[in-house]
Write a structure and sequence with these properties.
This protein is an alpha/beta fold. Helices cover 27% and strands 16% of the residues.
Length: 238
Amino acid sequence: MNTLYITGAGVSAASGIPTFRGEEGFWTIGSKNYTPMEMATRAMYQNNPREFLAWYYNRFATYRNHGPNDVHHWLSDKNLITQNIDGLDGKAGNKNYIAIHGRLDQMTLFHEQGEAVEPLMTPWDSVDESRLHDSLFELFNIQNQTPELNHSFKPFVLLFDEFYTELYRITQAQQRMLNADKIVFMGTSFSVNITQMALEIARTYNIPIEVVDPNPVHILHPNVSYKKMTALEYIQKF
């Protein structure tokens, strides 16, 4: 059976990374002046890169050295699309997973969306926290307080006011959904576009789905089963 696994932040919780919408989640904790939904935008990066990069570094990059947990290792040979940017599936050994929202350990040239660019490794260890803002500007090649197209860099992460492009392997992701005999959602709140896309394909082609979550969201689909448990509990059944 060709099972496609689509994972969300709940899968990385056991690695010590806060879930996005939990009490300590990234989207519930903003900056002093902005909500998370305002911070995580291309517009904020363009207009206030100083605050954007400091927020991104403090909310995400500080978790860059966390390791994969048993769920990531179990998924290491599976057909996988993850919403997580933490890169833990790669650390666990999955060679062909799709990081549909980007990767924390990478950056790209700051480009017009849709243009062909290649992700580059982000040298986070070069950041000097004693002069955080200046150091981040140096890392992302920002001069004159504003990122410059085709000159500066941008974290390889899909922001709220951006859209899925081939940089994020969207066509491959859709093809994996279409080819699946079953889709298993693990640790996701179904609040982002990629899960809605997968649900629409599952409904259209009558692909059975499974929802793994201690408090699963009810899904409108004629062929769905709910596993009211954590991802760690789920994999122990195999």
